[in-house]
Amino acid sequence: MIRYQKARLRVAEFFFDERETAAEADIVRYQFRPEPIAGCRSHDFHSLCLDLSRDAGALFARIHRETRYEIRRAGQDGLEHEFAARPEAPWMAAFYDFYDRFADSRQLLRVNRTRVDALAGHGMFSLSRISAGGRVLVWHAYLLSGARACLMHSASFFRHGGPGEAALVSRANRFHHWADILRFRAEGLAIYDFGGWYAGREDTEKLRVNRFKESFGGEAVHEYSADRANTWKGVAALGVHGLKQALTQSLGGRKC
């Protein structure tokens, strides 16, 4: 569990199959739980997971042929894989800056720094990056809970260069996932979670991301998330949040 304060609200979060304990909070958030949450309106969450108890050869064999080829070819690009199990301030600052620029370029939400700082403070946050010639190409950020590593954020600028740059970053990202998989496996973790899988059929961009994740041979999981208000402040905040979500959907998914 983590606790943090945002907009004067006390928030507590429980992850995966973590046992719930008493928490003094205005809002309790249940993330990626194996069953619907009693007494709450639960929301479906789909993802793809790899079983890291398999040996590395078996994991690599499950990867689609084209992705295996790209991973091998990336070994000739002079890429450097770095990771920080407990990232310190310089790494955190570099990641925040890179990801926020990426998010702005894609009209996505920036990093929730309050939440990420809370995860890092509890030893539940990990970072990794791929560089070429001293230039960072890709960042990955992970939520760590129990024996599970769950991808929270992935950022790169493959759309900003020419075809050669785009191909390099694409290979780097595939190589990055494989290097992270091997790292977490070596650390004794049991599950590599790709952090989401789109269950719809309409959004072509999300379907493209699905195909990328599926190329690593993961297995589908269906989990649930929910928020529960513990105080009147929590009730009011969740009401406003629900209204914003409804307005976003009525505007075709645009941020407002």
Architecture overview:
There is one protein chain. By secondary structure, the chain is α+β, with helices and mostly antiparallel strands. The chain has a domain at 46-221: Aminopeptidase (3-Layer(aba) Sandwich), CATH 3.40.630. Helices cover 38% and strands 30% of the residues. It contains 7 helices and 10 strands. The protein has helices spanning 56-62, 65-74, 89-106, 113-121, 163-186, 204-214, 232-250; strands at 2-6, 9-15, 27-33, 43-51, 79-84, 125-132, 135-145, 148-156, 191-193, 219-229. It has a 10-stranded mixed sheet, with helices on both faces. It starts with a strand and ends in a 6-residue tail after the last helix. 29% of the residues are buried. Residues 246-256 have low confidence and may be disordered.
Short structural description:
By secondary structure, the protein is an alpha+beta fold.
CATH class of the domain at 46-221: Alpha Beta
Number of helices: 7
User: How many extended strands?
Assistant: 10
* Rg, nearest Å: 19 Å
Summed over residues and divided by their number, the pLDDT gives a mean of 91
Ranges where pLDDT stays below 50 over 5 or more residues in a row are 246-256
Task: Give the neighbour order of strands across the main sheet.
Answer: 1-2-3-10-4-9-8-7-6-5
CATH topology of the domain at 46-221: Aminopeptidase
Name the descriptors.
10 strands, alpha+beta, 256 residues, ten-stranded mixed β-sheet, Aminopeptidase
